[in-house]
Write a structure and sequence with these properties.
alpha/beta, 13 strands, 16 helices, binds glutamine
């Protein structure tokens, strides 16, 4: 049987079950796709050899034989774990993250390490220490970040699923830029054991796929309580695909965030696409209410402070002694620390460590970090109040479509503002999913977010799936790259 590179997992499962394709053939096909095309995209840092992939997975399980790729901040036992940084280039993980272990147990084939912005810091995947990730829809444009490799690999038809991580939008933004589905779950729904920390209070592993059903399927394999991460929620494993019947919940109330759509910097094509999406949801039976949320206006600044502060503290462990690289010669121990960190970290990471240490320093702690934590609580409260009146919220994922490489080289603030619509969900710890909702006139994908209260993933998937079934976007794929 000829394999369709864009076949959803559901279709592949049937083909495997009916022996129309063999597990080995599908794996070889995906490896060959990377070999043939990834030199133009740069989505993978490494594709493993076939035998070592097969020897690490179970032959049985819901995801048996389904290949996927994992962002290189998530531990895979016996594999390099570089975080796209020189400082961890030589580091090999001694254990599996809970998410990767669960996927293997369910039969999934983990075929490589996906490229990213160094230590997941970025919005465009231009800061990887190795190479940038191009957008499969137009290789002169960025894939979005920081899980750009994970999103581009799925969009390009290399693999049907991938894992990313989302601290301020890193799963949803590249998913929107590349025209695929990306979810950031409730904080604590997926174990962070084995996820390299960026800003621990905001970090979550997320899932990228081409369809909602596939996303829910992977979620069913990895979500749920984990003894190895005390911040995980006490939820049992469940099947998130169960409610996906093409309809929405009876009486569903959806809030549209008007001050999300009416900001001056919003691209009008994105606004129009989201307005169309809202109409589809309304046709499906949802009641639409309009809101103004002050939370989103304060989120980016709050996220900026908290993420840098936690990053500075988390990245203090890379000192040339415990992990990864160490400079060859230095006059003293302190000089060794300094030189290793200077040579090992890229410019963006060093910049963030410096800002983070400044915001945490004596005399500035209360002014920056302390105040940011207070504003975070206000944001949480406002969202909690809003969810008393509606079940879900609609917000843009991005204000501009995937841009050309280098666009924001001289404007770091504009780059940081790419998180404007995505970071509120991280600050509030609530789930958000980015769903494709159209294209610009240049055929660059557009996405929008559905956001729900804590642990509303099932409702998000059900609603997103119903929307998807009414629209053609998930059937459209990049033609050449
Ligand atoms: N763009 C954001 C940042 O650079 C988000 C990163 C993330 O979610 N990992 O911090």
């Amino acid at each position: 049987m000829k394999i369709n590179p864009f076949a959803p997992i559901k279709e592949l499962q049937t083909a495997l079950k009916e022996k129309k394709i063999l597990r080995k053939e599908l794996l070889e096909y995906c490896i060959a796709r990377f070999k043939d095309y990834d030199h133009k995209i740069g989505s993978a840092l490494e594709i493993f050899d076939k035998e070592s992939i097969l020897s690490r997975a179970c032959a049985e399980g819901v995801l048996a034989g389904i290949p996927g790729i994992v962002k290189d901040v998530i531990a895979q036992k016996g594999r390099c774990l570089s975080c796209a940084s020189k400082i961890l280039e030589p580091f090999v993980s001694p254990y599996d993250a809970t998410a990767t272990a669960r996927l293997k147990k369910d039969g999934a084939l983990l075929i490589g390490r996906a490229n990213l912005d160094e230590f997941a810091m970025g919005s465009s995947n231009e800061t990887s220490a190795f190479y940038k990730v191009a957008n499969p829809w137009d290789i002169t444009r960025v894939s979005g970040g920081s899980s750009g490799g994970s999103a581009a690999a799925v969009a390009a038809g290399f693999v049907p699923w991938s894992l990313g991580s989302d601290t301020g939008g890193s799963v949803r933004l590249p998913a929107a830029f590349c025209g695929v589905v990306g979810i950031k779950p409730t904080y604590g729904l997926i174990s962070r054991c084995g996820l390299v920390a960026y800003a621990s209070s905001l970090d979550q592993i997320g899932i990228i796929t081409r369809t909602i059903y596939d996303n829910a399927l992977v979620m069913s394999a990895i979500a749920g309580h984990d003894l190895k991460d005390s911040t995980t929620c006490f939820v049992e494993k469940k099947d998130y695909t169960q409610k996906l019947d093409g309809s929405i919940k009876k009486g569903l109330r959806i809030g549209v965030i008007d001050n999300g759509l009416q900001v001056a910097s919003m691209n009008p094509e994105i606004v129009a696409a989201i307005e169309e999406a809202v109409k589809v949801l309304e046709k499906l039976g949802a009641t639409i209410k309009h809101f103004t949320l002050s939370a989103i206006e304060y989120s980016a600044a709050t996220y900026f402070i908290i993420s840098r502060a936690e990053a500075a503290s988390n990245l203090a462990r890379y000192d040339g002694v415990r992990y990864g690289m160490r400079v060859k010669s230095a006059e003293s121990l302190t000089a060794m620390y300094e030189k290793t960190r200077y040579d090992g970290f890229g410019q963006e990471v060093r910049r963030r460590i410096m800002i983070g240490n400044y915001t945490l320093s004596v005399g500035h702690h209360a002014e920056f970090y302390g105040n940011a934590k207070k504003v975070q609580q206000m944001i949480r409260n406002e969202l909690e109040q809003t969810f008393k009146e509606v079940d879900l919220l609609v917000m843009p994922t991005h204000s501009i479509p995937a841009f050309k490489f280098g666009t924001f080289d001289d404007n770091k603030l504009a780059m940081d503002l790419q998180d404007y619509f995505t970071c509120p969900a991280n600050l509030a710890g609530i789930p958000a999913i980015s769903i494709p909702c159209g294209f610009t006139k240049d055929t660059i994908p557009i996405g929008f977010q559905l956001i729900g209260p804590s642990l509303s993933e099932e409702l998000l998937y059900q609603t997103a799936h119903a929307y998807e079934q009414q629209t053609p976007w998930h059937t459209m794929h990049p033609k050449k790259f």
